[in-house]
Amino acid sequence: MSRLNGDIKSRRAELSNLVSQKQDQEIDCHHETSRLRQLQRSIEAETEAVESLFRSFLA
Question: Can you give the residue range of the structural domain that contains 30?
Fold first, then answer.
């Protein structure tokens, strides 16, 4: 019976560890998504500035 209890405790610890890892990865994913969206906005702004400058040279 004590072996069974030990197995249960071991499985619970393993499950808890997996849940923690999953939550950490989700947080990392959300952070990376935010970072990439900010980068996209920055690139779009720079592209617009370059296109505007190019149009002024053509005019």
Answer: 1-59
